[in-house]
Design goal:
Elements: H1 4-20, E1 28-31, E2 37-42, E3 48-55, H2 68-75, H3 85-94, E4 98-103, E5 108-115, H4 119-131, H5 137-154, H6 158-170, H7 184-187, H8 192-202, E6 208-214, H9 218-229, E7 253-258, E8 264-272, H10 281-291, H11 298-306, E9 314-319, E10 324-333, H12 337-353, H13 358-371, H14 379-392, H15 397-400, H16 402-408, H17 411-421, E11 428-433, H18 435-442, E12 448-452
Parallel strand pairs: 2-6, 7-11, 7-12
Antiparallel strand pairs: 1-2, 3-5, 3-6, 4-5, 8-10, 8-11, 9-10
Length: 458
């Protein structure tokens, strides 16, 4: 205990200081001859290493087969030229490490966490998984079957799928409108041949970044990574020039998704958002903290604390490389659907009509300055940040200038932010509930399009 207490006090002191002077730790960038970008950041506080490798292989590349990118990422761990799936799992588990693949709208890849003493063994295994997957047919079919069951089960939870319906409403002519995990109809026909072709096309070194953060010597690690990945040759990736998605709707629209056995209505209301590297992200975060970004937000106070219409309400911005969305989310009993929606809209309207005052703004700024640094203090979050900087086109000023941007935000600027980024008209409504009991009541919000939740697509 005598040794632990000084450490606790030191961490508290560091955390308090970070709120006032939070800077991205020093790191080194190296580009290998095959195009692979490396980020190396030493962090010696804990004897752990975090690795995060990302490719331009997200769902935006799925084309006519939603879910192909996600299924490809999962298939990396199903066996390699040297190891079976079982052997991969055993090697990872035996030393208490972790290794997982991931895929989202804009990227896919693999991350790992392990003790620094096990770095040689785990980095070799990491390389094997990334560069020599065999896409074992038997393991692939078993994994695909599990995913199909998960997709069917997801429809039983409106909160799990409402975001897919919302994206389909906002991005009907852009890849962001398709679900990252696909649908049973799109996943069922996918073969290992398609997985292998997707891998060969998009898992390429010329648009890949590997970040490694933790307890190591950068000079030695650079040599090690160059030896492991320097001779990895891939074909040049097929780049597709994309423009930001257009939003052509005029006026409010309502998508009503019928779930016949529902006893409550889950709803998401919003519209166009911002791209990942938007220069206005920081002031938007501050304003959204007031509207629905924390427990004491206006939305949560109105819909949960003061009225008891829900257990919680929030607003958020989902950011992608080429665009994004803004949404207000909550759920309520079927009988209180309209009162809850009306109250949410009233709170949003008050942001425009009443605005903020100095006291409210100061509270939100203090909250954001205290809440932000812990998001980027772990080695894993720093590794993810470094690859995000590469993937989404921003630099360390996002971190280093964050406190200053928060402090500079004044009431005049909040008025511009509210007007530009928090829509009060041309709203998109997605409601999942028992249609027969709410259909006539929600017509007042806009023209209705109806769907059945049991339908395959979104």
């Amino acid at each position: 205990m005598k040794k632990i207490l000084p450490l606790i006090f030191t961490l508290v002191a560091i955390g308090a200081q970070a709120q006032h002077n939070f800077k991205l730790p020093a790191y080194e960038t190296v580009k290998l001859k095959n195009g692979l970008t490396l980020f190396l950041m030493e962090q010696h506080e804990v004897p752990l290493i975090q690795v995060h490798l990302t490719f331009d292989a997200g769902a935006i590349q799925d084309g006519e087969i939603p879910g192909l990118s996600s299924l490809t990422a999962q298939s990396l761990m199903l066996g390699t030229a040297k190891y079976t799936k079982s052997e991969i799992d055993q090697n990872v588990d035996f030393v208490g490490a972790s290794m997982q693949t991931f895929a989202d709208h804009d990227q896919a890849g693999i991350r790992a966490s392990f003790a620094s003493k096990d770095q040689d063994q785990l980095l070799a295994l990491f390389k094997e998984v990334v560069t020599r997957p065999t896409f074992n047919e038997e393991e692939f079919l078993k994994n695909k079957e599990r995913k199909l069951l998960e997709l069917v089960q997801a429809k039983e939870s409106p909160r799990s799928v409402i975001g897919n319906y919302f994206n389909a409403q906002l991005f009907p002519d852009f890849p962001y409108g398709s679900p990252v995990d696909g649908t049973p109809e799109s996943l069922a026909p996918i073969t290992t041949a398609q997985i292998r072709k997707f891998y060969e096309t998009y898992y390429t070194t010329d648009h890949a970044a590997l970040a490694i953060v933790g307890d190591f010597d950068s000079k030695k690690m650079k040599t090690k990574l160059t030896s492991l990945f320097g001779d990895w040759k891939t074909q040049p990736s097929r780049m597709i020039k994309r423009k930001s998605p257009s939003h052509s709707w005029s006026g409010n629209r309502v998508l009503l998704v019928n779930k016949e056995d529902a006893r409550e209505t889950t709803f998401l209301i919003g519209g166009k958002g911002i791209a990942y590297n938007s220069p206005d992200y920081v002031p938007i975060m501050v304003v959204n903290t007031i509207l629905g970004g924390r427990f004491t937000s206006w939305l949560n106070d109105a819909l949960r604390v003061n009225s008891g219409l829900t257990y919680g309400a929030r607003s958020s911005f989902s950011r992608y490389k080429y665009g994004g969305s803004f949404g207000i989310f909550t759920f309520t009993k079927t009988a209180t659907t309209v009162p809850a929606i009306d109250m949410a809209l009233q709170v949003l309207d008050s942001l425009h009509t009443t605005g903020l005052n100095e006291e409210i703004l100061a509270s939100a700024k203090a909250y954001v300055k205290g809440d932000f640094p812990p998001n980027y203090e772990s080695a894993g979050s720093l590794a993810q940040l470094l690859t995000a900087m590469y993937r989404f086109g921003f630099d360390e000023t996002f971190i280093n200038g964050f406190q200053q941007k928060v402090e500079q935000l004044d009431l005049k600027e909040t008025k511009r932010i509210i007007k530009e980024y928090f829509p009060k008209d041309q709203l998109q409504f997605v409601l999942i509930g028992k249609s027969s009991e709410i259909r006539e009541q929600v017509r007042k919000y806009g023209p209705i399009t109806e769907r059945e939740i049991k339908e395959d697509n979104y």
